[in-house]
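Internal ticket - ligand job 307, S-adenosylmethionine:
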Amino acid sequence: MTIQTIALADCQVKLQHNPQVWSPFSATEILQVLKAQGYLDNLQHSHVLDFGTGSGILGIALGLAGAASITLSDYCEIAVAIAAQNAKHNGLEQIEVIHSDRFTQVQRQDYDLILCNPPVQPWLYTDLTDQSHRQRVEAWNEAGADGRLVLDSLLLEAMNHLKVGGRLITATSSRHGYAKTQHLLDVYWGQWREIYAVEQPIVPDYHGPYLKSWQAMQAQDLDLRVYQKDEQGRPFAFYHQAGVPELITLENETPTRWQQGNTGWQTITIDGQNTKTLTEVDLNRLLQAQQESCWYYMYYIVEAIKT
Ligand SMILES: C[S@@+](CC[C@H](N)C(=O)[O-])C[C@H]1O[C@@H](n2cnc3c(N)ncnc32)[C@H](O)[C@@H]1O
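stdout (structure tokens):
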């Protein structure tokens, strides 16, 4: 058994490595943000749910920071077993471990904090016929046809498991479709804010197989999940939608879809009355940037408070 030690600001988390459980890499970024913004201070009266716990890293770190009690929950049986062992490796006793698809087995309704680093990819490697025997660890980062299965359950149900004044802190991404996330936060939470926003590059070996799915989704709702950048850093995305070449640009912050016609790349103006053609200069500029720029997405951490 290999135990790795992850050094965080004030503590060291010991984690048993298992190739079938999510690597703690992205969690360390979340913990650094939480530490820098004071979220790991004064936890001694806090009851915390680490939702989609994987190795257990987030909950264990909060336990080591002094939280009164920690619940670790995950849909993956292997993750649940490893997270329980990892809690022991770190000498934590105030930990409960739950095997649960989203909130189905979560009973408590009085958490102070629900913390999550949710899965984000659309189904690709998930074995839909027998999800309990998914072999590829990538499958544990897949969440429904649009990648939102776990995020939506958080945004719609977490408040039922928080006390008044309790917080949901979740990572999310433009890959989830940020416009819908903002809409659900506005409608169901009211009081929420971004505590972190950073641009990340798409890693071809890992994200590459999912690019087409994200592009198809953004062709539906014009919410740029993944994009390239022009010479001035403005996002755009060329791709094929059902074999037809398409382009999305942001014109004065408004997403605009361009389709290739007989006389060039055209868009319908907002009043629906006229077509507008992309100038040759702009087209060449974007084609050049397409060659040079990699693909990106935005990564966010948001906090929402139950009022
Ligand atoms: C991106 S990983 C994060 C793991 C860990 N919290 C971390 O930050 O390293 C997402 C986790 O969500 C879990 N998960 C996926 N679908 C789930 C579901 N329907 N219900 C509960 N957990 C789920 C996966 O098994 C995986 O451990």
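Auto-summary: Residues 22, 24, 26-27, 52-55, 57-58, 74-76, 79, 101-102, 117, 119, 140-141, 143, 149-150 surround S-adenosylmethionine (CB under 6 Å). The first strand starts at residue 3 and ends at 7.
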